[in-house]
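Hi all, posting the design record for the shared folder.

TITLE: backbone redesign
STEP: 1 of 1
STRUCTURE INPUT:
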């Protein structure tokens, strides 16, 4: 990603077992510099047929910025059990 430009990054959530999950949520209030998104992110229901998408925008503050953005999320599985996980997005700017 070139300094002075921005890039849309889309994260798509689906289930891995074919069963529906509900109440997917993620706290985006503390994104690092250069990252932005609509916060809070929530999705009422997801399954293998209906995905939820999180749209992030990355606009590097300086050339040479590189790191890994780690986002944690939570949801309820099809049995109503609370689950959580994380997704890592590696990024760099030129």
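Okay, here is what came back for every position:
SEQUENCE:
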């Amino acid at each position: 990603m070139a300094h002075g430009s921005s890039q849309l990054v889309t994260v798509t959530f689906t289930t891995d077992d074919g069963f529906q999950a509900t109440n997917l949520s993620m706290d985006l209030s503390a994104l690092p510099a250069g990252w932005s998104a609509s916060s809070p992110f929530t999705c009422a229901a997801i399954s293998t047929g209906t995905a939820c998408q999180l749209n992030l925008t990355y606009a590097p503050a300086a050339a040479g910025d590189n790191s890994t953005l780690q986002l944690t999320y939570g949801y309820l599985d099809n049995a109503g059990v609370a689950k959580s996980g994380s997704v890592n997005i590696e990024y760099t700017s030129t």
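COMMENT: The longest strand covers residues 66-76.
Let me know if anyone wants the other runs.
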